[in-house]
Each structure stands twice: as C-alpha cells, then as structure tokens.
Write a sequence for this structure.
C-alpha cells in the first residue's frame, strides 16, 4: 500500500467516524455519567499531591500535629470516595461497552438482511463475520474505555499543570518537555502503524474465511484427500499474519521505547533540578515528583491509545463501509410508505397475488458483469403455467428465476407481476408469495418442526402433517425417536441431503406459495427419493405458477413451456415434443441423457 492509498484510507476512516455518533448518542446519559466520574477521580488525584505538600510543609517541617485528625479524615474520605467512584465508573463503562457492541452488531446484521444477493456472492462468510464481530468489539472498546481513560488523563494533566505552573514555571516546563517529542514521534510512526494494522485485519479476515471453509467443507476435504494442501494454505496465511504482526510489534516497540526514554529524561531533569530545592522546599519537591511520576502513566497510555486508535481506524473504516453498502435491489420511498419494508410490513395494504409473470423488453447483466445475459427478452407466463428452464451445468439457468424472485433487477425493461411492474410493490410482498427450493437445501438450527413452519409460523398441526405426507417425509419422521421435534443440527448436518430436501419441500408447501421456484431441487437426491419428490412436485405446482430449473430433462418433459439456456441466453423455447421435433440443442441434450441413462441401466442389470 503506497502513501497515497494510506492517506486516502485514513481520510475515509475519519470521515466514517460521524456514522458512529448515533450509537454513542443513545447512551449519552451513561457516557456523561462516566465523564463526571472521571472528573471527580482526576480532581481527587490532582489534590492528593497538594495534600501531601501541605502535610510535609505543615506537619513535618514545622514539627506539629495540630490539625492532623481533620487532615487525616479528609484524606481518607477522599481515597474512599475515589475508590467508590472508580468502581461504579468501571462497572458503567463495561455495561456501556456491552450495549454499544450489541447495538452495532444488531445494526450490522439488520443491514446485511437488506443487502442484495450480489454482496454475498462477492464476500466470504469469514469476511462478513469479522465486520460484525471483531470490528464492532474494537469500536465499542474505543468509545467507552479509551474515552473513560482519556477523560481522566486529560483532566489530570490539565489540573496538574495548573497547580505546577502556580508554584514553579521552570520545573513545570521540564515535566512537560516530553509532549512535543511524543507529537513528533506519533506523526512519524502513525502512517506505518496504520498500514500494518490494515494489512493485519485483511489477513485475519482471510484466515477466518479459510477456517470457515475448512470446517464447512470438511467432508469434501477428506473425500479429496487434500488435507495437506488445505493445511499448507492455512499455514501460509497464518505465517503471513505472523510476519505482519511482528513488523507491527517492532514498529510499536520502537515508538514505545523512544517515548518512554523521553519521559524518563524529563523525570531525571525534575529530579536534578528539584533536588537543589529539596532542602528548603521539601513539600514543593514532593509535589513535583508525584506529578512527574503520575504523568508518566498518561504518557504510557497515550502511546498505547495511539496504537489502538491506529488499529481502530481500520475497524471503523471497515464497519462504516459495511453500513454504507447499498443494496442493488431496493424499494422506492413511495412503495415503502404504502407496503412497508422487510422489518415493518404494512400487510393491510398488500394485494393478493395471482401469479401472472411477464418479461417485457428486458435487458439484464449482473452488477459486476460486462456482458448482457438477456437482451430485449419478452416472455409471458400466465397464472398456473409450469415453466421449465433447462441447459447444461453453468449455462445460466438460474438467471430468470433470480429475476422473477427479485433477487436481481432488470438492467432495462420491466418484470410484471399480475400486470404491474414488480418495483411498484415491495420485495417482501413478492417473497411472501414465493416457495423456493434450492439444490442444496439449508436448514436452520433447531427442530424439524421449527424448520417446517419458518415461512408460516401460524401453520396448524394438520397442515404440517399434510405437507409431511405429501412429500413422503412421514417415513423419515416415523423412524426418528423424537419425530418432528428431532434436532437437525447446524445447517441440518444431522440429516442426510435427501432428508433435508424433503423437509425443504414440505416447508415450501406449508407456506402455500402462489409462485413456486424449484432450483434443481432433485439433483442432490437418489433416484428413489427423486420419485417421491416428483410426485409431490406434481401436487405442489397444481394451481400455481411454477418455475422449475432442471438438469434431468425427464423431470420436466410435461412442462407447459421449456426454455433452453446456453451460455446465459435462451436459445430455444417450446413444449417437449416441439423441441424434440426441432432437433436442436434440446434434442441433443435429451439424446445424451437418454444414452447415459440407458448405459447406467444396462450396467446395473449386468451387475445383477
């Protein structure tokens, strides 16, 4: 990263700081209380050397005990009060930090729910996880603890300076000789530390992502026997992390060493100069030595906090960058005002969905793409129509389904739902009427029952049982000791892929969707399970508009219309018999799959 990039990063980071103000503003009373507590503590610590000076000058030099008891009582009360204020200050600081962390994480997670699919395609789970957890933790610590300590040290330094200046200007100048040195040092080291901490954070995100892949993809890693390769890649990242952390430690160590050396020199000067006065002004010497020693702590804190501030610049920049990300699919203000949004829907204004779909002069390219996938595309899908989208792996079959579901918006043209542009109504209005079953089903941690009713929590027991029977899930349920209350594990890992797929089908049925989208929903199951699901599919799509993305052509030969996709473009469309008669791309796909099936069946017979 060159100097120009570093300056730009720093500028963007400090520009992002105002975005943190709403989080802190919510707890302004708590923060004000912490500041007041630190004002009392700092005043108390400024007064202690003054009281000590008085004790030395009055009780020791004059050799009298007159007034010793009131003095001792005031001194003891001051110490006790300071201890109590410190206790409640630390307690309040911790509570405020925890609340700030919670608010920032809630805000980040909510914002992630609003972002469109392309954001998740471009960013790994580990990267996003670091934004929500690690970065917010650093920021919460900066806002609370460093503000807490910073207030104390600032007020203590000011108070001590005022007292010292009132007694001896020259000695005060020696004590504060270290300040310009620290300013120069920070200016010199700050940019280097910022660059290193930024690199460390990015590497840490990569490590988190690799760790996530290593856990989620554990079965694949073992089946491919690539443990050594993945371990080597992980070790390479951690070694890179180690090198950068050591560079940062050396840089910070040099900064800290030189700063402490300057502080010690200032203390030595006070000892030398103040020692000359000690015989006649022992109280003054004691006061200056106490302040000089106590002022070393703010210096050490300043060195540490400057390093933390440099690190926090990276955290603030990445967190505010996440909040600044805009979804590529949005609802207009007028739509939100009428229909609500994903978190505060106004369902009383929602019209019933029939299920008519029309592409009208649609052009489309992905947000990060250069080439158009669709150009001047027109297609009408009347209510109740069963549309199949077929093509080879990687042909772009999911593009149309993504547009219908409003996971992406047309670049130009309109997608009409029931005769109106889909953008005239809210995303949640449409998504609430969708039943979407993916090739790789995902289940939420919890029980089978909880997963079945996620899309429709008010579903009755009869509706659940009907859906379970419809997809032949009852055979699986009956074998489980806890039935519908069986835990599925994280992501459904305690179940087989076929069992998870059956649950996802039943979940879609319980939702009672008007539009059904099946994205290669039978591709990950065995032939027997596929036969069970296929009969369920025929029931599910009755009376509904259905979009079936399929690799196995035999599952869609009865579709009302088949769209053939190749290289992201629709090259043929029609019914099964029409496409076979045309002897085009669909015909070739059909014949190839027919031959593969025949070979497989012949091989199975031979083995028998």
């Amino acid at each position: 990263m060159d100097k120009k990039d570093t300056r730009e990063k720093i500028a963007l980071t400090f520009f992002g700081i105002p975005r943190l103000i709403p989080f802190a503003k919510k707890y302004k009373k708590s923060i004000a209380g912490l500041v007041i507590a630190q004002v009392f503590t700092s005043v108390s610590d400024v007064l202690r050397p003054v009281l000590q000076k008085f004790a030395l000058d009055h009780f020791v030099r004059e050799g009298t005990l007159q007034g010793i008891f009131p003095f001792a009582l005031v001194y003891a009360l001051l110490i006790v009060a300071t201890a109590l204020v410190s206790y409640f200050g630390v307690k309040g600081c911790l509570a405020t930090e925890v609340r700030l962390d919670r608010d920032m994480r809630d805000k980040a997670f909510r914002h992630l729910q609003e972002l469109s699919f392309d954001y998740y395609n471009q960013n790994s789970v580990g990267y996003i996880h670091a934004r929500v957890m690690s970065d917010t933790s650093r920021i919460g610590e900066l806002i609370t603890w460093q503000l807490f300590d910073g207030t104390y040290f600032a007020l203590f330094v000011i108070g001590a300076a005022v007292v010292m200046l009132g007694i001896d200007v020259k000695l005060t100048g020696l004590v504060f000789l270290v300040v310009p040195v620290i300013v120069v040092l920070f200016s010199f080291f700050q940019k280097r530390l910022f660059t290193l901490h930024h690199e460390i954070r990015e590497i840490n995100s990569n490590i988190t992502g690799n760790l996530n892949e290593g856990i989620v993809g554990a079965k694949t890693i073992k089946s491919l026997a690539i443990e050594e390769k993945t371990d080597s890649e992980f070790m390479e990242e951690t070694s890179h992390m180690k090198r950068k952390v050591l560079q940062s430690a050396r840089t910070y160590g040099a900064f800290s060493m030189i700063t402490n050396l300057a502080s010690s020199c200032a203390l030595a000067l006070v000892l030398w100069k103040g020692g000359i006065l000690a015989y006649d002004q022992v109280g003054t010497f004691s006061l200056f030595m106490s302040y000089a020693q106590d002022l070393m702590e703010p210096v050490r804190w300043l060195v540490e906090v400057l390093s933390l501030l440099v690190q926090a610049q990276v955290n603030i920049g990445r967190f505010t960058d996440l909040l600044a990300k805009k979804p590529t699919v949005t609802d207009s203000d007028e739509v939100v005002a009428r229909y609500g949004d994903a978190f505060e829907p106004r369902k009383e204004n929602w019209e019933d969905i029939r299920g008519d779909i029309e592409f009208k002069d649609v052009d489309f390219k992905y947000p990060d793409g250069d080439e158009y996938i669709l150009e001047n595309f027109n297609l009408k899908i009347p209510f109740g129509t069963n549309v199949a989208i077929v093509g080879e792996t990687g042909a772009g079959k999911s593009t149309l389904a993504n547009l219908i579901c409003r996971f992406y918006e047309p670049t130009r043209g309109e997608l009409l739902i029931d005769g109106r542009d889909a953008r005239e109504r809210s995303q949640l209005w449409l998504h609430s009427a969708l039943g979407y079953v993916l090739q790789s089903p995902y289940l939420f941690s919890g029980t089978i029952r909880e997963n079945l009713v996620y899309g429709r929590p008010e579903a009755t027991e009869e509706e659940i049982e009907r859906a379970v029977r419809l997809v032949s899930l009852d055979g699986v349920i009956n074998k489980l000791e806890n039935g519908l209350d069986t835990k599925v594990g994280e992501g459904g890992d305690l179940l087989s892929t076929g069992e998870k797929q059956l649950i996802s089908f039943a979940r879609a049925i319980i939702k009672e969707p008007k539009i059904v989208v099946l994205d290669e929903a039978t591709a990950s199951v065995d032939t027997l399970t596929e036969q069970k699901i296929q009969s369920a599919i025929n029931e599910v799509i009755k009376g509904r508009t259905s979009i079936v993305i399929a690799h196995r052509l035999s599952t869609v030969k009865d579709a009302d219309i088949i769209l053939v996709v190749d290289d992201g473009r629709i090259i043929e469309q029609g019914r099964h018999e029409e496409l076979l008669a045309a002897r085009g791309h669909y015909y070739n796909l059909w014949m190839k799959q027919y031959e593969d099936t025949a070979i497989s069946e012949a091989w199975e017979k031979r083995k028998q």
Summary: The chain has 22 helices and ten strands. Residues 447-494+503-511 form one domain. Confidence is low (pLDDT under 50) at residues 6-13, 599-608.
